[in-house]
């Protein structure tokens, strides 16, 4: 790994757009949480089981952990994304393929950051609905949907990681 080239990746329009909507999603999670906080009952769902049913309850202040954790994750992944030479790759990184490999991996991290923010936003939204009696759990669809949202981009990049970049 010490021999990997260090490249300062230039963001194209897709990368810039993903970063921007990711930051909007972080902001949206905070707005959703803060705007609804005062209306929440004192006890809210704070954990859901694999089928999406609330199985643990606690003080409404626990909902603040969701935007805090999501923000820290987003910032952490943003910082990590500045060092693509440190990532794990399924093939050897050389001077010839580094730009292509780093670009694909970096874009995948951007997609995952956005997906993670969508998931946290859904959890906040559904928790608020549950706390106010407007829903019953996250729904049985939640876990399979979120797993698909996370793993499909990863699988796509792994399958396409060794394909040569097309000119154009």
The percent range for helix content is 55-70%
- Inertia-based shape: elongated
Largest sheet: 2 strands, antiparallel
* Alpha-carbon Rg, integer: 19 Å
Instruction: Briefly note the structural class of the backbone.
Output: mainly alpha
- From the structure provided, what is the oligomeric state, counting identical versus distinct chains? single chain
Mean pLDDT metric = 91
β-sheet strand percentage: 5-15%
Strand order of the largest sheet: 1-2
DSSP strand tally: 2
Give the low-confidence spans.
Answer: none
The H-and-E topology, N to C, reads as HEEHHH
* Total of DSSP H or I helical runs spanning 4+ residues: 4
Q: Report, as a whole number of angstroms, the end-to-end distance.
A: 30 Å
| Count of discrete structural domains | 1
Write up this protein.
The protein has 168 residues and is mainly α. It has one domain. 56% of the residues lie in helices and 7% in strands. The protein has helices spanning 13-37, 65-80, 98-131, 142-160; strands at residues 43-48, 54-59.
């Amino acid at each position: 790994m010490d021999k990997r080239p260090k490249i300062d990746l230039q963001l194209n329009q897709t990368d810039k757009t993903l970063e921007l909507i990711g930051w909007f999603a972080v902001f949206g999670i905070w707005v959703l949480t803060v705007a609804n906080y005062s209306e929440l009952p004192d006890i809210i769902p704070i954990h859901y089981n694999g089928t999406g049913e609330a199985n643990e309850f606690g003080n409404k202040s626990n909902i603040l952990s969701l935007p805090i954790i999501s923000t820290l994750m987003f910032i952490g992944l943003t910082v990590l994304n500045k060092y693509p030479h440190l990532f794990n790759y399924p093939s050897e990184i050389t001077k010839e393929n580094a730009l292509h490999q780093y670009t694909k991996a970096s874009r995948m991290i951007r997609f995952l950051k956005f997906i993670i923010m969508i998931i946290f936003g859904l959890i906040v939204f559904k928790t608020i609905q549950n706390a106010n009696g407007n829903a019953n759990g996250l729904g049985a669809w939640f876990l399979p949907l979120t797993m698909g949202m996370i793993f499909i981009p990863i699988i796509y990049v792994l399958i396409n990681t060794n394909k040569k970049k097309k000119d154009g």
